Amino acid sequence: MSVRYGVDLDDLRAANNMLEPGTTATLAIPVEKTVEVEKVVEKTVEVVKTVDKEASFQEVTGTRMVVYTVDMSIVVKDTQAALDQIEQLTNAVGGYVVSAQTTQYDAGAYGNAVIRVPTAELDNVLAQLESLALEVRNQNKTGSDVTEEYVDLESRVKVLEAAEQELLELYQTRQADGEVTDILEVYQQLVAFREQIETLTGRMQYLEESAAMAKVTISVTPDALAQPVQVGRWRPDGTAREALEVLVSSLRFLADMIIWGVILVLPLALLVGGAIFGIGRLIRRRRRRAKPHGEAPADADNKALGGE
Description:
5 strands
């Protein structure tokens, strides 16, 4: 007797949607009609119904699972000192530094740090970061609600674990009185179920950790590089920008003139110049041809006068 019990996660997800009251779910599980497997399917469907009736994560705790992310840009007097203070602050609240780096320039160094801090301490950490800065140029705090995804994963894990338990009992029964091929097939399905459970629980753990530890990305700029050069009301950077804009406009105008000249003026000039050159050359040729005939009478008169 052969047993094939293959469950696709998409099928489970479809069957495990949060059911409306009074509706029923059916697992689309391709199996052979055996008494043992039919019992497994029936119990698994019952688990799906039970999951819908049980209190969800939100209903039990009354809270939402939110993953917070903060991006902020600050101006400080000394970049390295500020990064050191950020690390001390992070460690003090029970967080950790994911990464920290500096980029050195002649006038100073830019810094960047990524930290993880407990979500409960996030507002306190942001306030202390603001106190470290001479200026907060930008701060963006966003939250992503993952409660629905977490509850969905939790429900799917329950369904898979229930089916896994039933398969385990079937496997133990087959070990006692079943054939080797039947035992191997049930064992393969057990392994597949366990892999899917581990994948889902891994995602749940990631969401839990992300919701528990907020991510803060901090860009640090030294005051020497942040402040524009300004004397009174005169700002050299503004003047330089205007001069650059005029230069670009002039170069663009010059480039346009060159393009017009190459495409339009040059061919016309060659055409007109060629025509003028041809006409002038034709006139010169005619004059050369006409000149000997004009000199003949004069030569004859000169000879006659000489004879006299």
